[in-house]
């Protein structure tokens, strides 16, 4: 794609809760972002499905989920008898390391397929695959197999993630090419936590977004973030609620919109990569 800079603005965790659904729906319908990743196992999944069906042009990927990170707001697998995927209460574990150490890869695959098939059964048209909290990055061959099976691109950067790159990176890239799976060149993520010693502030999130946009390299970059409304619901779920609100606001900011124009950054969707993959 020569020296052009293409950007996918992707909101994670669609379906997680009502506050997140409201935020992502607003950002997509007003055109402030281009794509979203959908969690199929959460209590507010069906509301998100309704919002998508009201706007079927929405670009939605499936966010394979095998972790449930919050203390008092939980979810678990769609399939039954997934004994290695759950804690003693029947929920997904709170952290990725537990998945890596305890989960049977066959059960990870079965649950991922169940989540994709549920999305298809509900009438969704997924545009890509990724996984919540990187819970399947230790079984990349399974992710690549599912991308091949469903003819979908994968969230994994050809040039390595700024926040997560596998030790067998070159093998992953080679296998993806062999299977004809489209990958973005780069993946970036807005800071999920406030720098040590600082209070949460919108300006920190905004400056991070500005720095990311100004430093984009030629090719396709996905910028990942987690927007939500700062409701009592969200505040009860997670202490990260201020940053999630800032991430809702930042791509609606006039200065950010003008920067996208002045930097001649071309916004695209995951659907564009999916279409390329299916035409190969």
């Amino acid at each position: 794609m020569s020296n052009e800079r293409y950007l996918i603005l992707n909101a994670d965790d669609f379906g997680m809760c009502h506050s997140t659904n409201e935020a992502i729906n607003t950002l997509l319908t007003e055109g402030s972002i281009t794509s979203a990743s959908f969690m199929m196992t959460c209590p507010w999944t069906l509301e998100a499905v309704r919002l998508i069906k009201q706007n079927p042009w929405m670009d939605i990927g499936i966010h394979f989920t095998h972790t449930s990170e919050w203390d008092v707001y939980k979810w678990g697998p769609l399939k039954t008898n997934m004994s290695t995927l759950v804690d003693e209460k029947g929920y997904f574990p709170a952290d990725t390391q537990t998945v890596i150490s305890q989960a049977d890869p066959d059960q990870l695959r079965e649950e991922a397929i169940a989540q994709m098939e549920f999305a298809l059964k509900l009438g969704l048209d997924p545009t890509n695959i990724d996984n919540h909290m990187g819970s399947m990055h230790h079984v990349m061959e399974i992710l690549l197999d599912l991308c091949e099976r469903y003819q979908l691109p994968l969230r994994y950067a050809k040039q390595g993630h700024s926040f997560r790159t596998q030790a067998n990176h070159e093998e992953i890239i080679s296998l993806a090419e062999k299977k004809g799976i489209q990958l973005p060149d780069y993946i970036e993520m807005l800071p999920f936590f406030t720098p040590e010693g600082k209070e949460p502030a919108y300006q920190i999130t905004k400056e991070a977004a500005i720095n990311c946009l100004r430093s984009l390299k030629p090719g396709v970059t996905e910028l990942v973030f987690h927007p939500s409304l700062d409701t009592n619901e969200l505040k009860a779920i997670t202490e990260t609620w201020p940053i999630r609100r800032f991430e809702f606001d930042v791509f609606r900011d006039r200065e950010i919109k003008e920067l996208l124009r002045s930097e001649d950054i071309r916004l695209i969707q995951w659907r564009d990569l999916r279409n390329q993959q299916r035409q190969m």
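The first strand starts at residue 5 and ends at 14. The chain has eleven helices and seven strands.
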